[in-house]
Amino acid sequence: MRLHRDYAARMSLLPDCVCPVDGTRVRTSLAWCCPVCKGPLDLDYHPTPTPLKSLAGRVNSLWRYAECLPIGSPTLSLGEGRTPLVPLEGAVSAKLDFLQPTLSFKDRGAVLLAELALRLGPDRVVADSTGNAGTAVAAYCARAGLPTTVFVPAGTSGKKLEQIRAHGARVAEVDGDRAAAADAARGAADEAGTFYASHVYNPYFLHGTKTYVHELWEDLGGRLPEVLVLPVGNGTLLLGAALALRELHGAGLIGRIPTLYAVQAEAVSPIAAAWRAGARDLGEPVQASATLAEGIAIARPPRARQILSVVREFGGDVLTVTEAEIGAAQRDLAGRGLYVEPTGVACWAAVAGSERWGARRVVVPLCGAGVRGAFAGAPAASPGAGPA
User: Fold this and answer.
1) Would the pTM of this model clear 0.85, i.e. be above it?
2) Residues forming beta bridges with residue 43, ordered by sequence position
3) Among 200, 193, 197, which Cα is nearest to 169's?
């Protein structure tokens, strides 16, 4: 491994990881999962956000919230974060997170993974993805000068593969579905000197996605909307939002906490099935069909228990949208000047035209640019069964 000369000092400043299932503690390292249950890890990290007035004049990226991020003195940025909030219809607004450097919200977490990798000094970085996460990791690792391999399932969008390769990463196409690509990446991650840039297992990614809510809070003058509607495949944006809400409320910077709603494609909706059954975790595998929203087509999300717990904690619900609704929402947004991939329109599909929200202010994320995904009516992708 290639260690920084100040490696020990840098590592001493990083918080420990902890398993949310069995409480096992793990020092932040190349270890990518709980050594006991092999599940995802969380961070034992409880920062205090800075007051709104202290943010004036800071760097115009997510690093303006440095006090809330688990890596101090950042060296890496592509200007991620600070995406626009625009009105859509009535009391509903959209945060344009497809206007990130690599065209998806995954940049929020990828920059923290790459920054962490710089401190750990691995020989190589591996990731697995159906496109957006792999692209983000490839871009930030290119910026960091870290050799990277991205494992993808056969049939992944050619547009996304082209961008991953353009950033200098090696693409390893795996025969089989999304789960097969994840298995291959985890096998490579167990090799010595390898950093697994997993947006599902590595908790640093969640602490990047939470800046979505910190930005809303700042842009709305120290307030938050009554409702946040978020897409859920692996749940990284939802879980990051929950972290931010706890931080802001715990610091007394917000009084009322928004209600959190999760949205899944009806074709692949294991979280919705568990929710409707009143379960605390996933039950038997649900039948999955093809869906345009390939980015949230996750049949067995590793953090399912946490996702269900967060929806309960924040008084929300789990909604599903049909393929017809996804297609209609994508066409509707394009007609409003916003060209977004099918996965990225799922929340608008759940919100548009519904009377559920009344006069409450609602914000939805538009998560990925349409230039890399299918347009309504194009052939749907096959659903995956592992981390996206």
Assistant:
1) yes
2) 17
3) 197
